[in-house]
Design brief:
The chain is mainly alpha-helical and 320 residues long. Helix content is 78%, strand content 1%. The protein contains 15 helices and two strands. The protein has a two-stranded antiparallel ribbon. The protein starts with a helix and ends with a helix.
Length: 320
């Protein structure tokens, strides 16, 4: 990812200053929480996609920085709310907002971040970008709710799984790429092409995330966590549709009734590996990655295209 960062190093520094400014509050408690969030920001993948997408089609503008800030504000808001919904006490190895300040404050902090993002765009009349990103927020909410609904019944097929991850993960990366492009370019075909590029990257990213659940690496969430939360991910969906009836019944019974027992969860993980669920998911992930690269390669070669390609490959090669 170093090449991608180097290609926009000055823009990233400026973005960080703008983002810090965007989250400031006159309420001391809120400002303290904002500083905590800023210090523990992650890899900034989404702002990088905004900035690189803009640079692929023109010169980065003030509108681009606002688009990157809007995407990051909304992403951060959803993470804060997700931790409340999931009752998660940690985020990237640090205490989550709800762990330190309790649920009520965490929900209000998420709302504050959301409103800051909306006002940042509205006050500068970035209506097209606000439309792009708001659409992603709608899709994210629908994706999460669809996952909750389907997890209860444990009857997920592959197409529904793709609908879920397209909404809950891919839509925001898609909006990052289309908003970045829209900040420097008015051609709707190009904006749509970049949206589709971002969506494919987002699909690959989420399948990779789901694969971490079956690995041995320390990735910020315990192995088997998705099984404990009754989330049906691609390796498990494949296994359930390719194993024999008794194994299928046993897996579903464990997910429903014994999902807190480590040995039972390990048995499910071993079964998924044995049935070929991991290999199948890896192939699907690489297909999404290659489809993204195919779209990217329709644009002229150069430093920025190479930086975006590196970022795409990072999403599938990363170790955490």
């Amino acid at each position: 990812m170093k090449g991608a960062s180097a290609a926009i190093s000055s823009e990233l520094r400026l973005f960080e200053d703008r983002f810090r400014e965007a989250v400031k509050s006159r309420v001391p408690l809120l400002d303290r929480i904002m500083q905590y969030i800023v210090r523990r920001k992650g890899k900034q993948l989404r702002p990088m996609f905004v900035l690189l997408s803009a640079k692929l089609h023109g010169a980065v503008t003030d509108t681009t920085y606002r688009a990157a800030s809007l995407v990051e504000l909304l992403h951060t808001a959803t993470l804060v709310h997700d931790d409340v919904v999931d009752e998660a006490m940690e985020r990237r190895g640090f205490f989550s907002i709800n762990a330190l300040w309790k649920n009520k404050i965490a929900v209000l902090v998420g709302d504050y971040l959301l409103s800051k993002g909306l006002l940042l765009s509205l006050n500068n009349q970035d209506f097209r970008i606000l439309q792009i990103v708001s659409e992603a927020v709608r899709q994210m909410s629908e994706g999460e709710l669809l996952q909750i609904e389907k997890s209860r019944k444990l009857n997920l097929d592959e197409s529904v799984y793709y609908s879920i991850i397209q909404g809950k993960t891919a839509s925001l990366l898609a909006s990052a790429c289309s908003a970045g492009t829209s900040s420097v370019c008015n051609d709707e075909d190009t904006i749509e092409k970049m949206r589709l590029f971002g969506e494919k990257v987002g699909m690959a990213f989420q399948v990779k995330d789901d694969l971490f659940d079956y690995g041995d690496a320390v990735v910020g969430k315990p192995t088997g966590n998705d099984i404990r939360e009754k989330k049906l991910t691609l390796p498990l969906i494949y296994t359930l549709s390719h194993c024999d009836a008794p194994t299928r019944r046993k897996i579903i019974y464990i997910i429903r009734n014994q999902n807190k027992q480590k040995d039972k969860v390990k048995w499910v993980i071993d079964e998924v590996k044995k049935t070929g669920g991991i290999d199948y998911a890896v192939q699907k992930m690489l297909t999404f990655r290659d489809e993204a690269l195919q779209i990217l390669h329709t644009f002229p070669p150069g430093e920025i295209r190479s930086a975006l390609e590196e970022l795409v490959r990072y999403t599938t090669d990363r170790q955490y």
